[in-house]
Structures are given as C-alpha cells and as structure tokens.
Write a structure and sequence with these properties.
about 270 residues, mainly alpha, elongated, single chain, about 75% helix
Amino acid sequence: MPARLLITRPRGYLNFLNFCGSLIVSAIIFNIPLYFEVVRGDSPTVAGLRLIVPFLALPVAGFVSCMVINSRVWIRPAIICGTIMMLTGAICLACMGRKLSSWVTLVFLVPSSAGMGIAFPAINLCLLRTSPPGEHAMVTSTMFLIRRLGSVIGVALSTLVMQGTLLSYLQKLITGSHKAEVYIHSFSSISMNPDFPFNIILQIRESVRSIPDLSPSHQEEAITAYSAALRVAFASMIIVGVLLVAVALPVRLPDEDVTEERAAQA
C-alpha cells in the first residue's frame, strides 16, 4: 500500500473517512440483530429480516448521491452530509431503549446506512479525481482494501466493547445465593448448582438461546444487561462518528481552491 495515499492531502483524509465510515456501519449491522433477538424477543429469522431496511436504504441513498454529485459543487456537501448522518445513526442507536416500538427501531437503522450510501460515492469520486490516471487502479484497490479493513475492525471493536460491558452488567444485575463466593473463586470454584449466578452468567455469555430457559427474574436481568451492553457498543461508535465529521469538514478538493482563488481575483 503506497504511503502517499495515506498521508497526502486530501487523499489521506478521504481514505480515513472511508475507513471510519465502514467501521461504524459494519459495527451497527453486526450487532443490531442481537438487539432484536435478545432485547426485542424476535426469532433469529425475523431479526435478520429486519436488516432489509438498512440494506435498502444504502443503494437508494447511493443512487440519489450519484445523481446529485454529477455537479462538482455538491461533492463536498455530499461527504459532509453522509458523515453527519452516520454519526446521527450511531446516536439514535445508543439512545434506543427497550420500550421503543419496532417501527421506531427500524427508522433508527436508516441514517447510518443512508449516510454511507451518500458519502461513499462522493469519496470514491474524490479519490479518483485527485489521482493521476496511471494510479486509478492502485487507488481503487487501496480504497476497497481500507474499506474491508474498517469493516473487520468495526466488528471486532464493537464485539470487544459489548462483551466486556456485558460481563460487567451481568455481574451487577444477576442475583442469586452465594454470589460473592462464586465471584471470588472464579473458574476454580464453579459449582454444578445451576442456581449459582456465575454459572448463569457463563451460560448467558455462551449462548443467547439459554435466556428463555432461565427463571423469569433472571431472564429480565439478562435482557437488561444485554440492552445496556449493546447501547454502550453503539455509543462507542459515536466517538468514531465525531472523529469522522471532524475530518470531513476540512476536506477540500483542488478544484475548490482554484475556484475560490479565481473568485477572489475577480
């Protein structure tokens, strides 16, 4: 991967936007079925079918973006608008509670995917316009490589945050007898008694399908822990989204600088 594609302006900024945008959307798409399955009580099939909404929003927004950025004046606004929408999507999901209606949760999935559809065509076009024709193949392959890398890191980072936070919430929320002794001795003293909270926590973390088999009180505690952990995972994407918008705002194309200089001279 040529270093000049990562450190020169504006291509370095554009590749960073490519990376962070893919990171945010991949983290959301990966974790949202778990929210619908555990928190909302949907079956795995129904939870997966709900992803149709963001998957439809992405090409529709991409089509609109491609129609708009035919004029070079709208390229930079498309990038800024798309990054703001991705940040908005992360904020909406981080604020998503258990009592929201299903259609509201589906609406919350639209901004991030639509923002990706709006921003990415403009970013692709900018990268090609700021590169000589002889580098177009290299720029395109690097762009997709960075995008895939962002997807992998987004899934890994959000999973790390969610699982770590989930364990913390389960330890706080799960109730039962001999809780202190079980936590102190950790794995060396795991009892075969299913009433011990540590066994329940281990069972919940290994498979969400074990939650319906728990007692009603433990089911409620497990669902509350998952809901809180997923909100934290989505909230972690807000940090990336703020960084995304902060980098998108100063991005300028060479044509814009030339146009402004001509306007100033006139």
